């Protein structure tokens, strides 16, 4: 509910409602999100970007296990990073025994 | 009070102020009670836990490891829409401080009883208002009670007001003078209370079927407006308290108002007090009136929101001198009620000299003679001082 648009509710592509406050009268009494936390794309915070090198990766899934944001998912038995929510903490690179995670500078 | 006869279904019990709180919470049908059971806790929650154990009260009683957790549990319960209650005193209230802000800023109508006990060190479990007054900026409504009947009634009224304005409320009573003193208290029938106080059903609440984040990060462009809304609600609370009080009076025959005037209509010297000390002051005023002195009394019942207009209205009638008696002190400044009264009157066209008295800290008795002497010193004292100490051993 911290986001805005116009006074009326509208839906974006993913069906998440956003709302704009013109003044205090439109606002609920307390700070409450109108959507769940998926709305908050934390990938925007990232300054370094982890990249999994396919040739080195053995699919041990340590990165999947250690990612504090649950941003590593398993597709076809291989780890895949969700860049919409990955904050770039680098823990996946730290735990990877094969050195298969490369940290790149985020270019945005 | 009560008409002197017992109506059908109405019970009159001789109970302490602590138990008046417990019966109040029971009548209000508190659904979640969280409390830390060790000193400075009082019999309030002991009685409530008995009620829950005996199934007289259908509620969840949560024993926690500190007062901070007690308030956190109440906040959680209130956030899912349950009516929650706790009680504490002095150091316990101080430990809750962080969570007091949270309850108010999250707009949760938690109701709490605080027994005014002195802050340590040195350890002292007697009456002193500094503990609750130190929490004045947390956004809680504060009611200062004079007697045990008022305590029970105020607990019920405060739920009604708090759930309307979505702010938490603190019902405050003096240690020992009220908390451990037995008085006859009329307990109204549950059916009438249920009519007066319907179940709490908030518009916004935590629900697993419809998840939302409450109190998440809010940037400066909206935080400011949320604070503005709290202040507005506090101001609305003044009229809500009056409304809840008058409907209570219609139903149960007792009303209290934001402030209580006692022989203040034609008073030239007005004493302003709070809590149980006002009963003593009423006797003193009667004695002074018998001698022909025009003394009057104003008891401040609601401290937050502060009833500025009510005080101005009384003072504008032609009061010549005001004495504020505080059982509390803001170190480095003065009595806290004294500060508030001065700030309410500072922009008045007609300036009235206001004298601040600090009396009875840590439970020292404030007697009728003390109050008569206070009145005398207002008359003889032409030099305004910030603090006039009453009976300090020099």
List keywords for this structure.
heterodimer, A: 108 residues, Alpha-Beta Plaits, 2 domains, two-stranded antiparallel sheet, 2 helices, 6 strands, 9% helix, elongated, B: 394 residues, alpha/beta, Rossmann fold, 7-stranded mixed beta sheet, 6-stranded mixed beta sheet
Write the layout of secondary structure elements.
The complex is a heterodimer of chains A (108) and B (394).
Chain A: E1 10-11, E2 17-18, E3 48-52, H1 62-66, E4 72-75, E5 78-81, H2 91-95, E6 101-105
Antiparallel strand pairs in A: 1-2, 3-6, 4-5
Chain B: E1 11-16, H1 17-27, E2 32-35, H2 43-53, E3 60-63, H3 67-79, E4 84-89, H4 90-105, E5 111-116, H5 130-133, E6 141-144, H6 148-165, E7 169-174, E8 182-187, H7 190-196, H8 220-252, E9 259-262, E10 269-273, H9 277-290, E11 295-300, E12 302-304, H10 308-316, E13 321-326, H11 336-345, E14 354-358, H12 368-380, E15 388-389
Parallel strand pairs in B: 2-3, 2-4, 4-5, 5-7, 6-7, 10-11, 10-13, 13-14, 14-15
Antiparallel strand pairs in B: 1-8, 6-12, 9-11
Helix pairs in contact in B: 1-2, 1-6, 3-4, 6-8, 9-12
Task: Report the structural category of chain A.
Answer: mainly beta
Q: Give the % helix of chain B.
A: 40-55%
Please tell me the overall pLDDT of chain A. 84
Query: Hey, roughly how much beta strand do the residues of chain B contain?
Result: 15-25%
Shape of chain A: elongated
Sheet with most strands: strand arrangement of chain A = 1-2
Strand segment count of chain A: 6
Give the end-to-end Cα distance of chain A, rounded to a whole number of Å.
26 Å
Which pair of chains has the greatest number of interface residues, and how are they split between the two chains?
A-B, 15 and 24 residues
Strand order of the largest sheet of chain B: 3-2-4-5-7-6-12
């Amino acid at each position: 509910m911290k986001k805005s648009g116009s006074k009326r509710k509208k839906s974006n592509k993913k069906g998440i409602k956003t709302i704009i406050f013109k003044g205090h009268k439109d606002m609920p009494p307390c700070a409450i999100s109108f959507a769940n936390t998926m709305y908050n794309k934390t990938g925007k915070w990232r300054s370094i970007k982890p990249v999994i090198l396919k040739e080195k990766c053995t699919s041990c899934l340590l990165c999947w296990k250690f990612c504090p944001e649950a941003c590593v998912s398993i597709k076809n038995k291989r780890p895949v990073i969700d860049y919409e929510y990955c904050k770039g903490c680098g823990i996946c690179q730290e735990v990877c025994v094969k050195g298969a995670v490369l940290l790149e500078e985020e270019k945005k | 009070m009560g008409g002197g006869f017992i109506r059908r279904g109405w019970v009159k019990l001789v109970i302490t102020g602590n138990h008046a709180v417990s019966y109040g919470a029971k009548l209000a049908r508190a659904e979640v009670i969280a409390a830390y059971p060790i000193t400075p806790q009082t019999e309030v929650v002991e009685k409530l836990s008995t009620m829950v154990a005996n199934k007289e009260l259908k509620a969840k009683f949560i024993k926690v490891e500190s007062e901070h957790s007690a308030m956190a549990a109440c906040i959680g319960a209130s956030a899912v829409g349950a009516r929650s209650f706790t009680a504490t005193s002095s150091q316990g209230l101080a430990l809750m401080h962080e969570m007091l802000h949270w309850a108010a800023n999250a707009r949760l109508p938690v109701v709490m009883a605080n027994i005014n006990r002195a802050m340590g060190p040195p350890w002292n479990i007697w009456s002193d208002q500094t503990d609750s007054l130190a929490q004045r900026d947390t956004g809680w409504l504060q009611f200062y009670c004079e007697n045990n009947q008022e305590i029970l009634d105020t607990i019920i009224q405060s739920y009604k007001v708090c759930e309307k304005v979505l702010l938490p409320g603190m019902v405050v009573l003096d240690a020992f003078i009220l908390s451990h003193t037995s008085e006859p208290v009329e307990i109204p029938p549950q059916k009438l209370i249920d009519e007066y106080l319907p179940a709490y059903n908030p518009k916004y609440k935590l629900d697993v079927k419809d998840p939302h984040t409450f109190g998440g990060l809010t940037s400066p462009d909206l935080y400011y407006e949320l604070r503005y809304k709290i202040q507005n609600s506090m101001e609305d609370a003044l009229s809500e308290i009056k409304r809840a009080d008058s409907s209570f009076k219609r139903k149960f025959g007792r009303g209290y108002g934001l402030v209580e005037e006692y022989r203040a209509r034609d008073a030239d010297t007005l004493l302003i007090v709070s809590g149980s000390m006002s009963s003593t002051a009423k006797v003193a005023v009667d004695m002074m009136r018998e001698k022909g002195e025009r003394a009057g009394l104003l008891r401040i019942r609601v401290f937050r929101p502060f009833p500025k207009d009510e005080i101005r209205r009384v003072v504008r009638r032609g009061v010549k001198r005001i004495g504020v008696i505080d059982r509390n002190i803001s170190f480095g400044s003065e009595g806290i009620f004294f500060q508030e009264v001065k700030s309410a009157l500072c922009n008045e066209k007609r300036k009235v000299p206001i004298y601040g008295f600090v009396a009875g800290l840590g439970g020292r008795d404030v007697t009728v003679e003390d109050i008569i002497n206070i009145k005398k010193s207002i008359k003889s004292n032409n030099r305004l001082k910030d603090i006039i100490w009453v009976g300090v051993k020099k």
